[in-house]
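hey so u asked for the seq, here:
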Amino acid sequence: CAHPGTENRGLGQFLAYRHHVKDAFVSSPVPVVSEKELAILDQLVQLGPDELEDPHGTKTPLKFKVALTVQDISFGSFLSGISLTYGITRKIEFDITGVGPQNIGAWSSSNLIFVIDSNVNDHVNKSGHATVVVRGNAGNTIAYGSQDGLTLVRGSVGHDCGYRLSGDPSKLYGTTGLGHRIMVGGDAGDRLDYVS
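ran it, structure tokens below
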């Protein structure tokens, strides 16, 4: 499912222009992407089409270990845009340590998986399509407007979680006190057995 305004330019174009993709963001006067996402992009551009395509979801996800800080706001949104624009369909899993900043997985594509071994701030998987597993506590408005992703939280969550949870398979599972409002579809409930 592509976000509005994105055009799939094809994996071949990504492979042909992969070094220019990074240059366009590095030369921007405003830092629009974290160095950690650019480092992952450096690794992705070394892969061939067979390693980036997985239209049937049968391949093992590509895995990256990442230590985040509160400065890494919206981690994953840049790589999500790259995936949607250039047709990267293979699952990419981030094993995240450190402090979970705001907006992890926000506006994310469905090929991204975030496994977070710490507490996270607000807006995890906001309007997202990703799978997000939080093994600690989460802040406010978790899975706000989530489209078709899966958000699992082991610990407690703040207010307005699951607000406008709209996609049919959208799911938000966490501890009691989810505070979800306006369930337009999807599911919200207490299912801690999924978070190991």
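The radius of gyration is 16 Å. The longest strand covers residues 62-68.
lmk if thats what u needed
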